[in-house]
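Hi there, hope your week has been kind to you so far. No rush at all, and the record is pasted right below.
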Amino acid sequence: MTPIRQGRNHSAALASAICVLAVTGTVLTGCAEEDPNEGTNGVGRLSAEKIQAKTRSVAESAGAVRVHGNVVSGERTYALDMRLKDDGGEGSVTSEGATFRLLRVGEHLFLKADAEFWSHGAGQGGDGEADAAAASKLGGKFVKVPQGDPSYKKFSGFTDKGVLLDGLLTLHGTLATDGHDEQAGIHTIRISGDKGSGGTLEVSLEGKPYPLRLERAGGAGTLTFSAWGQDFSLREPEKSETVDYGRQLPAS
């Protein structure tokens, strides 16, 4: 065994003491910077492309998630607060000052809103009195949306975990890591597309690398993701709470 020279041992001890002083607040240089990925799940050490692939994989395999925030689509902004899982979802959507609730169990989609929501379609190419009567009937009830109705395709996407996440968890342009941050008390690594213009995504460095916050490209909304894997009950409303309109819903 090769003996360690006294001078080298003394230097190592001195360097250790200097770093201790630095930690206690004395301004000194020469200590190595702390690794922000030390003690984490390790994804912060991966390339941005691998981080995005990994976070999409764990998101798709999670049984449930809560999505909260806003999405800009076309000329409309939708404020979402949805809980989703593989066989359906429920929550609220607000657009242009009108709030409605969505509930999907399997292929059955229900929409619940007040009479004012439904009355927006009154007089648009139809019988105003009939539309007003329909609005009164539908207000405050879970209205079963026919699968052939244009509203079904439009609104069921908000309740479909796979479709919604697939459309959201994509950054555009050249990907790069963009520093560390914190979201709801959880340490994160940020990845971005085209230096942020293609969107930014914060990924958890604790536990599984779930996506926690997304800023969509082009200012198309900001969303937070939480309650990953936390199951919740999902059931169809009682018959007394439901109206089966039986044909195309009024425009709204």
